[in-house]
Design goal:
about 200 residues; Elongation Factor Tu (Ef-tu), domain 3; globular; Phosphorylase Kinase, domain 1; six-stranded antiparallel β-barrel
């Protein structure tokens, strides 16, 4: 397994389906009562559809898709809208972790450069410098007069994070792999190519 780089962004997507994938084991008794146990933390996934594009524009996409060797290797991709803070792509928020936090935690204290502001809204995403997992904010976060705040996240932390670690708050890259080993590129007789990609987060 290897990381091959950033997914090309020269050509915009026509549509994108964004998904949260949670693995749950459900056991149902004869009485109909069920017991549900989470077997893995939530991972994010997506399906991207490209518009028809000329061959020359498609070739860089074909190159990285083939280089990934199906599900073997991984890449980073910044997703339209999803990867960006609700305050806008130009929002100048910087944040660092305030106090070491252990794996399994569902909230993280941060220090920021924004005093008494709502810095995150429920549904925003972020990641920490120590590992590649992306987390979703579950409640609005408003800082106090010193710029401090507490972020509630899902899923719970996959790894420990250290004090003063940086937090990526905008243009958040998702570390992904392809969901299928076979990639199909449709070359039309009019000189255009169409392509869809199914991907899932690599943990």
């Amino acid at each position: 397994m290897a990381y091959v780089g950033n997914w090309p962004t020269t050509i915009g997507f026509r549509t994108m389906n964004f998904k949260a994938v949670s693995d749950t084991k459900v056991t149902t008794s004869q009485s109909g009562r069920s017991v549900r146990v989470s077997t893995a933390g939530t991972r994010f996934a997506g399906t991207i559809q490209y518009p028809p594009m000329v061959v020359g524009n498609f070739k860089p996409i074909q190159a990285i898709a083939t280089r990934l060797q199906g599900q073997l290797n991984s890449f980073d991709i910044t997703l339209p809208d999803v990867s960006y803070n609700s305050n806008g792509a130009a929002y100048g928020l910087t944040a660092t972790v305030d106090g070491a936090t252990s794996a399994g935690a569902t909230s993280v204290d941060v220090n920021t450069n924004k005093n008494s502001e709502t810095i995150f809204y429920a549904g925003d995403v972020l990641k920490f410098t120590s590992h590649n997992k992306v987390y979703m904010v579950v409640d609005n976060v408003t800082t106090d007069g010193t710029g401090a705040g507490t972020i509630s996240i899902t899923p719970s932390l996959f790894e420990d994070i250290t004090d003063t670690s940086s937090v990526t708050v905008n243009a958040v890259p998702f570390r992904m792999r392809l969901e299928r080993d076979i990639q199909e590129y449709r070359y039309a007789t009019d000189g255009t190519v169409t392509y869809n990609i199914d991907m899932i987060e690599e943990i």
